Amino acid sequence: MSMEKTMLFILFFFTVLSHSQEQKALFGTIMDSLNVINNVHIVNLNSKQGTISADDGSFKIFAKVGDTLALSSIQYQKKKYRVRNNSFSFQGLNLYLISKVYLLKEIQVKRHDLLGSLGIDINAVPTPIIPTMNAVALALPNAGRKKMKKVDREIYTAKSTHIDYMLNVLSGRLTKLRKKKKLREEAADVNIMFDKFKLTLEQHFKINKEVRFAFLNFCIIDPLFNKKLVTDELALIAFLQLKSIEFNALNTVNK
After folding, report:
1. What mean pLDDT is predicted for residues 82-97?
2. Same domain (yes/no): 59, 139
3. 199 is in which domain, residue-wise?
């Protein structure tokens, strides 16, 4: 085992030890005045970990005395709860939310200037302004963030906590995920270049049809290749021209 992994293992051991001494599983149920509430977001503001209440309103989250839990749901007022010693009781913790009350604006009946003809009067009726209802407007967790690709979500999850990060480093999973992401990005770059130049690779760069993908993969492993080249067509053409000379020279030697 390398020195780096040994140090990570020692750090992991003491982190797990301190984590187990401080944090405990807290079980509870989210309710209102009548029923249990599902799909409530519960976030530990101290550890930044979160969960969602199940169909029966139950939830489980790791916390320690003094931590603050933030509860949020579309139809209920937000609430914060400070964890106490008796929060870890055998019966579980019951947390109550209050429904939001929506007040309608006062309606005033005013004199109108309608003519009594539906075809004419309908154009005089003002169109109501409907407020935008989306994840950002509702202040939902992670709202407004760019949707991550699957491999990015896997990497994010692998680093979500200190324990997850160290476990995945020690097991080599994080390294494998990063290599997987790099391979997928390189494959995407190859496909973009192929779509742009598939009809001209043979004519302008003297690349035979059967080795077009081999040539493009040869290009992307060059240290000078970068994402900016893919979007700058003139620079990409100049780069491919230079690499085609090198590629064809290697093919000639190998024949």
Report:
1. 89
2. yes
3. 173-254
